[in-house]
């Protein structure tokens, strides 16, 4: 059924409403750094929850890091987790409240470093949770240190000469790893770097929510993002670096759907 159109009148003229602020976002200015993708993710999550009328049946979990700000903006029940432990906390909540939609929002320093064990085992067990994984290749809040997802040669506060692959290892592709586990049902990479990719990202968020409501297993949506402050760039510079470096290494698209791996080409 087509969505009923909404109109408003202003100065004697009638206008069709094509977008409005999600009711699930609190009426509070966001204080993410300019150009950051975190706010866009939260907006899209709340848009989908609004459209599906799921706010009262949703519980979010966010740990230490920039994702912790979600409590200030997302008007759903939220629970804080210790650094790296969001999927473990979400597992407990999902088992106690199996009729609820349970999700986490986590950065790469959290999910792919201190929380690697919790992430891998939650996915392997097929816990009925959604993991929203913001990968901006750096520790954003704690000082711009190198993360497991930092690219080769990338300069950070703890790798001032760039990440040396010979001594520091290769960037970890978490989504490819968890897609190999039998408990994952849907794994995809998205980005908000342009309108086309943003629309695809919202559809991926909606798909993960639908699968979770059907209790299909663990869903992971990786958001390949940017961190202008941590990268020491202007927002515009970060968008260029994002598109030229991040997305080629972490190619966008579905990796696993309905429990089946999707053959993909590209990436390094």
What would you note in describing this structure?
This protein has 268 residues and is of the alpha/beta class. It has one domain (33-261): Thiamin diphosphate (ThDP)-binding fold, Pyr/PP domains (Rossmann fold), CATH 3.40.50.970. It is built from ten helices and ten strands. The protein has helices spanning 38-51, 70-73, 86-96, 108-114, 116-125, 165-168, 174-179, 195-213, 228-231, 235-249; strands at residues 7-10, 13-16, 58-62, 77-80, 101-107, 130-135, 184-190, 218-224, 253-257, 260-261. Strands 4-3-5-6-8-7-9-10 form an eight-stranded mixed sheet, sandwiched between helices. Strands 1-2 form a two-stranded antiparallel ribbon. The longest helix is centred in the last third of the chain and has 19 residues, at 195-213. It is globular and about 65 Å long. The relative contact order is 0.13. The model has no long low-confidence stretch (mean pLDDT 93).
């Amino acid at each position: 059924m087509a969505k009923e159109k909404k109109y408003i009148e202003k100065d004697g003229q009638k206008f069709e409403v094509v977008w409005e602020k999600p009711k699930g976002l609190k009426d509070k200015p966001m204080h993410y750094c300019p150009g950051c993708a975190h706010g866009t993710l939260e907006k899209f999550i709340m848009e989908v929850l609004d459209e599906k009328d799921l706010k009262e049946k949703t519980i979010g979990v966010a740990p230490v890091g920039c994702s912790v700000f979600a409590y200030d903006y997302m008007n759903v029940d939220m629970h804080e987790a210790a650094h790296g432990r969001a999927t473990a906390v979400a597992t407990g909540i999902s088992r106690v409240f199996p009729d609820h939609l349970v999700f986490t929002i986590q950065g790469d320093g959290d999910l792919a470093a201190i929380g690697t064990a919790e992430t891998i085992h939650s996915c392997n067990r097929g816990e009925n949770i959604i993991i929203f994984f913001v990968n901006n290749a750096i520790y954003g809040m704690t000082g711009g240190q190198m993360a497991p997802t930092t690219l080769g040669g990338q300069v950070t506060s703890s790798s001032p000469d760039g990440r040396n692959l010979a001594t520091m290892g290769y960037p970890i592709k978490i989504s490819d790893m968890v897609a190999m586990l039998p408990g994952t049902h849907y794994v995809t990479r998205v980005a908000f770097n342009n309108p086309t990719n943003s629309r695809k990202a919202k559809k991926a968020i909606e798909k993960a929510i639908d699968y979770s409501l059907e209790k299909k297993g663990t869903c992971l949506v990786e958001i390949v993002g940017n961190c202008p402050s941590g990268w020491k760039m202007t927002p515009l510079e970060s968008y260029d670096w994002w598109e030229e470096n991040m997305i080629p290494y972490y190619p966008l698209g579905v990796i696993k759907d309905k429990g089946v791996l999707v053959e993909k080409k590209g990436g390094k």
